Amino acid sequence: MAYAQQADANGPIGSGVIEAACKTLASTRMKGAGMRWGMDGGQTVLTFRGLIQSDRFDPAWERIRQHYVVDARPPDGILIWPRRAS
Question: Could you tell me the pTM of the whole model?
Fold first, then answer.
């Protein structure tokens, strides 16, 4: 990192901002009482938390959703009764 240029531009040169972000983003969410996470589940939670905290969830969700939308139809021979109005 070019510390002199960052300092001249009044940019952050310490790790405190990053450490605080890690604490609020990850540690608080991942280390609650009784929580146990595997690699896949933990990464999924952190990915969504990062998107939410950075106000990027909605556009990301549109992209993610496209991979999981499935045209589900019942097998042949299954009768679907009309829903009753509630």
Answer: 0.52
Question: Cα separation of 27 and 20, whole Å?
Answer: 10
CA–CA separation, 25 and 27 (whole Å):
6
Report the distance separating Cα 66 and Cα 69, nearest Å. 6
Query: What would the two tokens of residue 41 be?
Result: 């589940």
**3-state helix, strand and coil shares in percent for the chain, rounded to the nearest 5:** 50, 0, 50
List per-residue pLDDT tens for the chain, 86 residues long: 688 888 888 887 777 877 887 787 788 778 888 888 899 998 988 898 889 988 999 999 998 888 887 777 778 888 777 766 65
Q: How many CA atoms lie within 13 A of 85 on its CB side?
A: 0
Report residue 9 as tokens. Answer: 């531009």
